[in-house]
């Protein structure tokens, strides 16, 4: 009854996301799928659930599940000669959409909730398997189905409540119940505990063990190793799109060995050369014991001119939120923020920009970084219209000159000043998003996930650009969840987890492995 | 579309991203829309065709005092009404209360002339201030509550309907002020051709036309060249991006709605001049024309782009169709059906033209 994703390959423009990754799932076990950001976990999950199609490799499911469902790829593939004897009785399937995967018994609980808030618990659970009578929804049967699924999980929940009234933990349980309603033999849980309390996590793991004992295969994707060790039986570790540990008993490893497996790297990132910051340079931006209403506690850091300070952590660790608090979008409730040695209280981005010369390159390029429907000139000049206007009016020529300046300085490929930002490639959009802050003479830049969704070569060029800017004397706070990017760029790396800093690593050894391991341990270590 | 001979034949767009060292010396061809696809030009052509058709069918169409002068006076009002809507369309908002803001402002003006006997310009200023204040209140409500502008201004419109009739019922005959401050009648009846130096007289243009022209020019300059107008457009183009670029977006929303209220008040003033009275029904016909001009003229309902010239042309087309069909002695009901159909056709044609142009341009 094994489910097998065999040597999957998936390539995106410029990136090989999966390069022969294998995931072998046994029924009645909890399987941890681990890897750093970018290792290929989400691509693997998307292929397993029929969202993406692989460029190479196979997905094999037990014959009785494959039966009438997944599309048969063609003649002669029926008798699969798998890598081992246990594969006998497996059947290759090709999913042409999520429904196919679902019919083959693979269910997923995504990080982003996949429920309809206005619908009741019962309606959500029965969404893909709504009982009907004479063409109409059979509400009694639907409630019965939902109650049955929740009972099997040992969860007590009013099935008539709208999902919007539930807690995050409850929604998660509803999603799991929804997967049971379609009788999933394999259940993929993507970072299920990211927003749960310790107690809720314990309850969830109780449910996970129950599913295991029913004979299902549960895949747990998590960055919290202590939790993984508490509940998982076997582990697959992905690195650079390959599985470096394959369905191995977890008991054979220590947490430290797992981290080493995750971060060890075939082609290590190399730190780019950059002049060190002169000792004794006063910090440009300094936070002391900062707390925010969002939940940051006791955050202290300082960035000096010419320095790149990395802020590493997972999505949801509170890094972008810290940046927004510095910009005045969220109130700082305790501690001090100093800009060039002066304590300040910034209340708006305009103030951060015009008075303190702090710029923020957003992680959300398309919605926050650029104006997709506006010409490039306006995208670059938007921060300096106060300076450009003469007698209240702005001349087009001044804007064009400004664009030309940064087009040359940053190497932006464009067809003309009237081109819309939405017509540029991602990398060039990112440069436009950066250019507006340079145009405004910012000397403190907060750069948030600068190379997400950008191909490898453009990424490298962007990295050089960031180092260049720091060498020119800018103080740069670099937020990233890309470990190689951190090691390539940062002078020092701070690690944030759950809205607190867990430690600092100096990136001065030029040894990728030791630095990345030190960072990895700070990130994955148990919260105290 | 020309591309350098050494460039790979395919894929066209995606390869740009992958090229390593960006070289600004290699020019990428500018892909602008061809001239025939310029929506403003299309409107101008349509306008000329309509004028030619109507004047050949009915020679009265070119009669100065019967047709041309009233058309210009009407057009002045619809242009300003369109500008009032355009001011908030720039944000991607709507102002469904343009008509009633005009009515309230017209009441304020009539009351000031009647009870305070203020001169014409002073009363106008009072009315503009009232309009701007009501608009600002709408804008403030929208940005403070986050409720959609459609709902807020609809509610405002509803409330103002009641307020206006209450206000009028407390004064005079209950429906209008019949006061005629000095200058109002000449503004209403005179054209520049009534003022002659020796044998040289002005063109047959009503005196209120320059007021609308100045308003159009000012709004055009604001959105094209001034920081305020551009920041309003950026706010409409991407609220989050605008906020993160240091634009005080909440203030810009209030300002745009305030401008909308001010222009609605101006339109109310112009209509009162044309009608000869500040009455309760001013603005009751404003809503549809307020959208027709800007939308025909290429202003996006989604926000972020406006066209003042387009608004003027769009309003002119609507006016010409209306006048022409009236001259052809269409019944009012039929007239409305025809106006609806012609406008639908014009908008569809515009869309078709745009799609065709984009396909030919390589789908940039």
From TrEMBL, chain A:
Domain ABC transporter: 3-265, 270-523
Signal peptide: none
GO molecular function list: ATP binding
Compositionally biased spans, kind Basic and acidic residues: 63-72
Keywords assigned by UniProt, alphabetized: ATP-binding, Nucleotide-binding, Repeat, Transport
Residue numbers spanned by region Disordered: 63-89
SMART domains for this protein: AAA
Tree of life domain: Bacteria
SUPFAM superfamilies (UniProt xref): P-loop containing nucleoside triphosphate hydrolases
Gene3D superfamilies recorded: P-loop containing nucleotide triphosphate hydrolases (3.40.50.300)
Name this protein carries in UniProt: Sugar ABC transporter ATP-binding protein
Organism: Actinacidiphila acididurans
TrEMBL record, chain B:
Bilayer-spanning residue ranges: 41-59, 71-89, 119-140, 147-168, 207-226, 259-280, 300-321
InterPro entries in the record: ABC_transp_permease
Signal peptide: none
Membrane topology: Multi-pass membrane protein
Keywords tagged on the record: Cell membrane, Membrane, Transmembrane, Transmembrane helix
Main localization of the protein described in the UniProt heading: membrane
CDD domains documented for this protein: TM_PBP1_transp_AraH_like
Subcellular location: Cell membrane
One Pfam short name: BPD_transp_2
Superkingdom field: Bacteria
Xref: PANTHER family: ABC TRANSPORTER PERMEASE PROTEIN YPHD-RELATED-RELATED (PTHR32196)
Protein name (record): ABC transporter permease
Organism from which the protein derives: Actinacidiphila acididurans
Upper taxonomic lineage: Bacteria, Bacillati, Actinomycetota, Actinomycetes, Kitasatosporales
């Amino acid at each position: 009854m094994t489910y097998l994703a065999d040597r999957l390959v998936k390539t995106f423009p410029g990136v090989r996301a999966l390069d022969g990754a294998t995931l072998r799932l046994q029924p009645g076990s909890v399987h941890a799928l681990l890897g750093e950001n970018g290792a290929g976990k989400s691509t693997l999950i998307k292929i397993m659930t029929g969202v993406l199609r692989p460029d190479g490799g196979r997905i094999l499911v037990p014959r009785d599940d494959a039966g009438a469902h997944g599309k048969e790829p063609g003649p002669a593939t029926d008798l699969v000669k798998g890598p081992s004897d246990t594969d006998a009785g497996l059947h290759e399937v090709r999913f042409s959409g999520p429904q196919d995967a679902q019919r083959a018994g693979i269910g997923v609980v995504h990080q982003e909730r996949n429920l309809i808030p206005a619908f009741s618990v019962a309606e959500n659970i029965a969404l893909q398997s709504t009982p009907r009578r004479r063409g109409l929804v059979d509400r009694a049967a639907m409630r019965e189905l939902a109650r049955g699924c929740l009972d099997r999980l040992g969860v007590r929940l009013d099935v008539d409540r709208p999902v919007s009234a539930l807690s995050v933990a409850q929604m998660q349980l509803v999603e799991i119940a929804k997967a049971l309603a379609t009788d999933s033999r394999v259940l993929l849980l993507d970072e299920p505990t990211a927003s749960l309390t310790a107690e809720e996590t314990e309850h969830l793991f109780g449910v996970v063990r129950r599913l295991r004992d029913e004979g299902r295969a549960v895949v747990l994707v998590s960055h919290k190793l202590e939790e993984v060790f508490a509940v998982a039986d076997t582990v697959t570790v992905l690195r650079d799109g390959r599985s470096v540990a394959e369905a191995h008993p977890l008991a054979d490893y220590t947490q430290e060995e797992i981290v080493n497996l995750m971060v060890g790297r075939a082609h290590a990132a190399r730190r780019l050369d950059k002049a060190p910051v002169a000792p004794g340079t006063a910090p440009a931006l300094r936070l002391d014991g900062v707390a925010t209403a969002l939940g940051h506690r006791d955050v202290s850091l300082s960035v000096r001119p010419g320095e790149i300070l990395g802020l590493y952590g997972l999505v949801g660790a509170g890094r972008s939120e810290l940046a927004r608090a510095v910009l005045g979008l969220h109130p700082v409730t305790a501690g001090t923020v100093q800009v060039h040695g002066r304590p300040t209280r910034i209340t708006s981005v305009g103030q951060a920009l015009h008075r303190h010369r702090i710029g923020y390159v957003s992680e959300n390029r398309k919605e926050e970084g650029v104006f997709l429907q506006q010409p490039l000139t306006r995208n670059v000049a938007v921060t300096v219209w106060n300076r450009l206007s003469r007698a209240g009016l702005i001349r087009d020529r001044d804007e064009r000159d400004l664009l030309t300046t940064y087009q040359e300085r940053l190497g932006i490929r464009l067809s003309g000043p009237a081109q819309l930002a939405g017509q540029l490639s991602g990398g060039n959009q990112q440069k436009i998003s950066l250019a507006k802050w340079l145009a405004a003479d910012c000397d403190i830049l907060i750069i948030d996930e600068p190379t997400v969704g950008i191909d490898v070569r453009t990424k490298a060029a962007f990295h050089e650009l960031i180092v260049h800017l720091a060498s020119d004397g800018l103080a740069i706070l670099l937020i990233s969840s890309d470990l190689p990017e951190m090691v390539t760029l940062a002078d020092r790396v701070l690690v944030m987890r759950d809205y607190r800093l867990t430690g600092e690593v100096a990136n001065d050894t030029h040894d990728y492995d030791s630095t990345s391991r030190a960072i990895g341990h700070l990130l994955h270590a148990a919260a105290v | 579309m020309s591309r350098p001979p050494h460039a790979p034949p395919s894929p066209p767009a995606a390869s740009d991203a992958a090229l390593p060292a960006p070289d600004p010396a290699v020019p990428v061809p500018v892909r602008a829309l061809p001239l025939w696809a310029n929506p403003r030009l299309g409107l101008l052509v349509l306008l000329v065709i309509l004028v030619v058709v109507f004047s050949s069918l009915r020679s009265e169409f070119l009669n100065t005092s019967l047709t041309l002068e009233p058309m210009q006076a009407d057009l002045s009002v619809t242009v300003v009404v369109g500008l009032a809507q355009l001011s908030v369309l720039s944000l991607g908002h709507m102002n469904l209360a343009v008509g009633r803001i005009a009515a309230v402002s017209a009441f304020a003006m009539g009351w000031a002339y009647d009870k305070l006997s203020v001169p014409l310009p002073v009363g106008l200023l009072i009315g503009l201030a009232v309009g701007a204040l009501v608009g600002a209140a709408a804008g403030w409500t929208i940005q403070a509550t986050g409720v959609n502008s459609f709902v807020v201004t609809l509610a405002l419109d509803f409330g103002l309907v009641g307020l206006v009739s209450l206000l009028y019922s407390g004064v005079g005959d209950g429906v209008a002020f019949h006061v005629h401050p000095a200058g109002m009648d000449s503004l209403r009846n005179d054209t520049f051709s009534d003022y002659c130096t020796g044998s040289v007289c002005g063109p047959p243009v009503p005196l209120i036309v320059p007021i609308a022209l100045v308003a159009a020019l000012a709004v055009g300059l604001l959105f094209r060249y001034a920081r305020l107008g551009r920041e309003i457009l950026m706010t409409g183009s991407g609220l989050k991006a605008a906020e993160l670029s240091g634009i005080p977006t909440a203030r810009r929303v209030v300002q745009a709605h305030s401008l909308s209220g001010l222009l609605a008040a101006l339109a109310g003033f112009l209509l009162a001049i044309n009608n000869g009275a500040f009455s309760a029904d001013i603005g009751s016909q404003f809503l549809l024309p307020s959208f027709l001009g800007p939308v025909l003229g290429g202003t996006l309902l989604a926000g972020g782009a406006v066209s003042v010239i387009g608004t003027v042309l769009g309003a002119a087309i609507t006016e010409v169709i209306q006048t022409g069909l009236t001259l052809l002695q269409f019944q009012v009901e039929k007239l409305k059906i025809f106006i609806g159909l012609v406008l639908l056709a014009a908008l569809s044609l515009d869309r078709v033209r745009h799609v065709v142009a984009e396909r030919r341009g390589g789908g940039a």
